[in-house]
Design goal:
This is Integumentary mucin C.1-like. The chain is globular and about 75 Å long. The chain is α+β, with helices and mostly antiparallel strands. A two-stranded antiparallel ribbon has the order 1-2. Strands 3-4 form a two-stranded antiparallel ribbon. A two-stranded antiparallel ribbon has the order 5-6. Among the domains are: 137 residues, Spasmolytic Protein, domain 1 (Irregular); 42 residues, Spasmolytic Protein, domain 1. It is built from 14 helices and 20 strands.
Length: 509
Amino acid sequence: MEILSASLLFLLLIHTSKSQKFTQCSVSPGDRIECGFPGISAKTCEDRGCCFDSSIAGVKWCFHPKVSPVCEVQPNQRAECGYAGISVKECNSRGCCFDSRTPNVKWCFHAKEQAPQYTQCVVEPRERSECGFPGISAKQCEDRGCCFDSSVPNVIWCFRPKVSPVCEVQPQRRAECGYPGITIAECNSRGCCLDSRIPNVKWCFHSNELSPQLNQVCEVHPYQRAECGYPGISAAECNSRGCCFDSRTPNVKWCFHSGEQPPQYMQCVVEPQQRVECGFAGITAKQCEDRGCCFDSAIPDVKWCFHPKVNQVCEVQPNRRAECGYAGISIAECNNRGCCFDSRTPNVKWCFHSSEHPPQYMQCVVEPQERTECGFAGITAKQCEDRGCCFDSSIPNVKWCFRPKVSTQCEVQPQKRTECGYPGISISECNNRGCCFDSRTVNAKWCFHSEGDKLYNMTSKVIQCSIAPKERKECGSNVSSEATCTALGCCFSSPAPLEGCYLSNESHH
């Protein structure tokens, strides 16, 4: 149980899949703790570091985010992951924790499970080594390659970062991870080490313990990498996309999809000798992408603008395609969404979900004769989507605005739905999150997780069962079977001497 919890929580907080990322704002109405006042706006609420959800009438709309066990970090032990004024939503999108209960401390910070190179500036006041002078500013301190923390009065505010064993790398053996003048905060956000004790050497570099992911699924030849970011992207943002980051080789893609990604991510990974020309000599990346083609100038004297390859899972008839993008989307952005791109047929969807996607992605793929009217003659796409309906004008003389189909996995009672979007979200954006959309019931969640969202359900269960042994309350009487315990809606721990069946966090309330 404990091993499963640790691995799932790491997956939940640090990396993402197509399932909706965990959000600290997913709090049941009955468990919400007031953070505002009647009539408070979303912006005013978020400025307080709180969550806002107005989808359910008669409950608290502005409330404090929930804090899971891995986020229970003492304020003076927190490693910065954001900036002053960051919202809980943006903080969570970075795979980090948000806790605004204590004023004048870091609210957005790394979880307990982070590698030591993320916490180089978490130094006890009495152990700090001076790196500045009285009155030094944060910028002046950072320019020296040092840490700045003014949250504790009457101690050293500008101090040298601690160097953990994984960062003890000889200068001549350091693999560059930054650039001259990089701050320790940005260096750490890339998952790298900073050591400024020796001048004129690399200060920001990779640790001597590359993560298992980098050693295995991320060991992709530079010329075989499928772009997942953009030049200058940080390791933190790259990881928050569920991708690999490796900056050891200059002038290649640093943020890329792992070697285990499904084939639709790799449409632009084409051997030079197999490339089919899509441009002309001197064509720019933008001109190439405007044609719906791939651009890769990493290898000289070969075709740089070429047609994407179409894998078997992307061989979907135009009239069966489920939209995953928008008109004019580039193949790179489409692939980054985990979708297929096929520009061979004009005037149809070019960016669409693969044939292997679960049914909730296909809610707007409805045969013309089976469509249920949701609009009127001449309705626009926006007017249709504002009604929570699908719009498809690719086939003339049929219904263009129609109700989405609801698969078995999406047949969830309104009161049992777990939010996956926000009020006014479109069905296409909801489906792109891997979630269900059902607008048949007013004043209920329209975008929500399916019953078959295994990763979401498992991680939610882990959070509900993350209770310290001494705080656990027995469920049932001497229940020794995990199956019986689970049937009671409770948590089960197997390693002795902590074996037993106990109430979940949800049952405590």
